[in-house]
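User: I'm preparing a small set of examples for a lab meeting where we compare how different chains pack in three dimensions. I only have the primary sequence for this one, and I'd like the structure in token form so I can line it up with the others. Please keep the answer compact; I'll paste it straight into my notes.
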Amino acid sequence: MARSARLTLCAVAATALLSACLSSPLSQERGTSRSTVIAQLGQPLSAAPLPDGGERLVYTTLPSGREAYHVDLASDGRVVRTEQVLTFKHLSAIEPGRWTAADVRAFFGTPMLVDSVASFDGTVWTYRFMEDINLRRLAHVHIDPAGIVRKVMFTDEPLPGDDRLS
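Assistant: Understood. Below is the structure token output for the 166-residue chain.
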């Protein structure tokens, strides 16, 4: 490959990478307006009121990704906080018997998978997340027919080619 073609390819790749970084929910600076956030990130998966009169915008990379982001706005519509919430810390804070399916969806977004198992009367919502830089995990949220969370379990995500997938 000619030197100029390699340089052009590198420049295009660097521009794409920089654009991806700039459009991350975590790149939204404190004080950014709601309209600017939406112009940069697109429409959120969901928006919900916060107790202080503000609003929470939820953006996710699910179903294939492993991130869910909160962009919290003050009552004046400006960013006060951003956070990646699809973490063991947040998932393990789900309280069985108290959280509902609506609470889970509002906090984490749409699950990667909704399935059922023979040993539970209800559905199991599965979320992918990274517990560590190299540890891919799954959180299985068991929701009964009334929409109440009954259990949360964690497993390692099987790797492609893993015999357990057969």
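A couple of notes for your slides: The helical segments are 3-22, 34-41, 88-91, 101-108. The two ends are 42 Å apart (CA to CA).

User: Perfect, thanks.
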